TrEMBL record:
Top-level taxon in the UniProt lineage: Bacteria
Protein name: UDP-glucose 6-dehydrogenase
GO term, biological process aspect, one: UDP-glucuronate biosynthetic process
Key words, A-Z: NAD, Oxidoreductase
Binding site for NAD(+): D30, K35, T86, T122, E155, K266, R331
One Pfam family per UniProt: UDPG_MGDP_dh_C
Class in the EC hierarchy, top level: oxidoreductase
Residues bound to substrate: F152, L153, R154, E155, K207, F252, L253, H254, A255, G256, G260, K324
InterPro entries: 6-PGluconate_DH-like_C_sf, NAD(P)-bd_dom_sf, UDP-Glc/GDP-Man, UDP-Glc/GDP-Man_DH_C, UDP-Glc/GDP-Man_DH_C_sf, UDP-Glc/GDP-Man_DH_dimer, UDP-Glc/GDP-Man_DH_N, UDPglc_DH_bac
Family: Belongs to the UDP-glucose/GDP-mannose dehydrogenase family.
Domain (UDP-glucose/GDP-mannose dehydrogenase C-terminal) ranges: 317-418
Amino acid sequence: MKISMIGTGYVGLVSGVCFAEFGFDVTCVDIDAAKIERLNRLEVPIYEPGLDEVLARNHAAGRLTFTTDFDAAVASSDVVFIAVGTPSRRGDGEADLTYVFDAARRIARAMKPGAVVVIKSTVVVGTCRKVKEIIAAERPDVDFSIASNPEFLREGSAIEDFMRPDRVIAGVEDERGEAALRRLYRPLNLREAPLVVSSLENAELTKYAANAFLAMKITFINEIADLCEKVGGDVQRVATGIGLDNRIGSKFLHAGPGYGGSCFPKDTTAIAATARKLGAPLRLIETTIEVNEARKKAMAQRVLAALGPQTAGRIVAVFGVAFKPNTDDVRDAPSLVIIPELQKAGVTVRAHDPEGRAQAEPLLPGVVWCEGPYEAAEGADAVAVLTEWNVYRGLDLGKLKECMAGRMVVDMRNIYRPEEAAAAGLRHIGIGKPPAGDA
Ligand code: UDX
């Protein structure tokens, strides 16, 4: 079975590489010639642990190719995946489907009879049907199938997520579509990871509902953390306590500076906008978006409060600018709100991130970039931990204190044990727990 993957962004590239790893013949297509050239030199344009290795292996085996020749790739494929971007549309926040529809038109012109067109991009409900209409209008004589196969992989563990998913969602309209998806995912042990076969609409909605629920879960624990601070509680103990209830589950209950990344902010905004337009507003999700936005600003205030009344001229070391560890992605990262808020108050920000600097630098003018966390802490009045990279977890807190001019650590990911930080002479201000160490 031959596959083409239209779009070599995050989802497209990881999926293409992983399908090749399953043994299929995969052609990844992109209009960006420079990107394709780099991929052909085996240079991976994103930071994703393990991806370069799997890519190189499959490329060497001849199962994985990269091209800008859209028509040739599609013409020889049994299954064509659409994995192009669906950014938020300016103004109304709905997903911008221009790239999906453009791809559909081009696929229609080039595809062979009997092809299955699978939409992997995150698309609002009803898009698959529209894609079907577009293709049918272009090629009324040709028989084809449409399917929806949303992707749930997380940045930083994308390969593992693809190879060992909790489930695979297969939205289909006929047996040919179902058979194609069953065949594609046969290499997975589908007893452990069920294939949920359903309608196109159900599959499209499943993706949005899953992301919206997870965003809501994070936001819920963030608000509980605020309450813990008021009553002298510890959100980590509360999260453990509620997470042991199987109906709640222990994952996604880490309180922090608010969710970010390329999916949650965009997808929650899109589903909320669509739902409102259709007259079935998702008020819980609308509130989630609002609370999460406010949280990022509140986190900046927390750092400023730690500095005391005089903030101008003070120095804050920021540990981590990526929206989470093991990625260089800073899209919608809390750092993009928190750092400018600190700068507005006259603070000099010295920042470190193991991978995120290149993406963050153009977006965060005025930041002093440092090679390591100790260097960033040099002369700082406070340290603010924004991303829980492992390199920050193991720091020698005594040494950290020595580098600093002050002693405040605003630990937005609760990576340090408060009593350990206090023993090192630091004032630890975590999330959802009492501060530790002398004020
Ligand atoms: C997410 C979904 O998990 C994935 O299924 C979907 O396909 C794309 O969006 P990703 O954006 O890579 O994946 O990141 P994820 O690991 O889910 O984290 C999202 C954000 O939530 C991050 O900013 C993270 O720091 C935050 N988060 C997550 C918390 O603050 N607390 C948690 O307990 C979990």
